[in-house]
Amino acid sequence: MKLSICMMVKNEEKNLHRCLESLKPILEQIDSELVIVDTGSSDNTVEIARQYTDKVYFHKWNNDFSSMRNITIGYAKGEWILIIDADEKIEDTSEIILFLNSIYANKYKSVDVNIKNITNIEDNRYGIISSPRMFLNDGTFRYEGRIHNIPIYKKPTVVLNITFLHYGYIETDTKLMKKKFLRTSSILIEEIKKDPKNIYYNYQLAVSYAMYKDYDKALKQIIKTYKIINDRKLNKKDYVYIYYEMASYYYFAGDSTKYKIIEDICKEGIQLEKEYIDLYFLLGKISIFTNNFVQAQKSYKEYINLLENYKNLSIYKNTAFKLYTLDRLEETYYDLSFIFFNLKKYKECIIYIKKLSSGKYIEKAFELIVKSYLKLKKHEELKEYYNENIVCLDKNKLRIFYSYLELEIDKSIEEDRVDIISKFSGNNDTYSFLNKIRVYYNSEYENLGQLVNKFVRVLDLNYEPNYFGDLIYYKIKLKDDIYDMLSNVSMNKIEEFIVYIANKYDDFKDTAYNYITQNINSDFQVIRVNRLLDRFVLVMDKLNEEQYRFIFKDYVNSGIKYISVIYSNEILDNEMIYDVKNDEDSFFIFMNKANQLKTYNEKEYIKYLRKALELYPFMKKGIGMLLDDFKNKFNAKNNEFENYKKKVKITIKAFIDNNKLDEANKIIAEYEQIVKDDLEVVLFKSKISLKKLSNVNTSYKM
After folding, report:
1. In principle, which of 83, 109, 236, 583 could form an S-S bond with 154, CB 3.0–4.6 Å?
2. Which of 468, 456, 386 is nearest to 420 (CA)?
């Protein structure tokens, strides 16, 4: 028999089918056997295994990986032994089959393969390590070490271009990671207690902490490992594989001084191993954080050079090295584009932008893409890049791109703005059609209002970004009806559009004022929009007093009518301000109450104006005008009343002087119905009494 495939398994129903299916070509084309040792499964693992082989054996787990591996090897009858785990699969078995069927195999006693450790499926993150997995079954091959079992085998070793995909450390599977951490770390801690200076166990414990995302403990453990190497005066080059882990753990757990430490670690590691590709990548990344863009460029370019030929690197074939950054080329291209953008080298930035191929990094580079092309005034080239790389992305990503483009359009001079809009008006999508309308507006197209109406009918403005507010602005400028097009648009969205318009257009105040003055009526669709327009015009506070009074009056009237439609009488009458949508609606409740009280209870009227102001201080100026009006009216009434009192008193005095006392008393009686406790009137009454007494005495003498 040519080959024995040996496995040990426990509760692997989730993975086993995938693994064993990948082995079928070998089992079908090579004289081989599949040996599976189960160590205590409680799920369907055994049933799945028996679908592929009748050589299923049972041995209780003894907490020693190497011991269990050696049990599986003990069942092997093949000339060669292939070791694979249930959470792995072989990507392409053809080279194994070719090797075993060739005389070439007679020259070797072991085979190295690539183990691709998948850490994040969604982001396609992985690390690669070269590992011996196929061995001549000469009776001496075995495993040693309770954890991270180490194969003891003979050389020469051939490196085959075969990849095992390993799914055992998917970082998003927290349950799995915790299970493996607890199992692995407990054994490692036991072994370290027996042999505290064991570099391999100390290093693997640091790795275990990191896989469990406990970077504080991982950093302490890797520093301890490094110290052991130093204290024992060992050759650091033999242990250079710890440098990337040490630098990475500092990155995740270090303090504010970490970047300089990481830089020093990377440089020391590179001095020991010139091919250490991971350290070049990390040095490039750290150099960006410290704004050392020259060093970042140099490090990243060396990383790219090594990556282009990584399969021929000696460290790629070194089983001590796990390479973590072979999947980071796109990230490197992005970082280089970022570096050149910050150096204002926009041509170089675009060179690396064009190397990006994944949607993830193209999306991340949207801002750099837009700004770099526009800085160079390469409008047509930007549109070409967009058509080739961006237009195919989903709608949400496109909107992010458009938002960056819109920001730059707004900053551009008029000539560039018109050209960019024109360039992005040729596709068959809503953004292009918006730009077509913008082009027509700039060219004073006479049927623009009809074109906007036609466009809006097929749009749901509730789901469009704020820059579609241009459509509303154009309609306002044309004095066309905006109320119908906004009748099914939420108030929040309308407000978002108006904020955009108010910030973008310098003439918004005058344009909105003129539009409002021509569109005042009690139709609900009108008042719901007008109160928003009113509010923005008022808050901008660029109106003269007459204009401000007019708009404030319309704002209050529209607001009161609006709340009377959307809220019940119970809420309005009982002033249930905590049950309405916002402070503005509460403001209108109090203003409504104030208006009701104005004509018959001036004191309460003032109280409610002040309550409205306290709740919604944005309308301080308008409320101030109402309070001033009341004060002026009160003063005018007071002056009128004082004049009345003076005239009455003159009349009373004249009657008294002319001895017309009855007429004087009659006027005093009427006056006291209006004015109480007037001291002058009391004196008048005393004078009348004296006069009457004097008249009686005079009559008596006669």
Report:
1. 109
2. 386
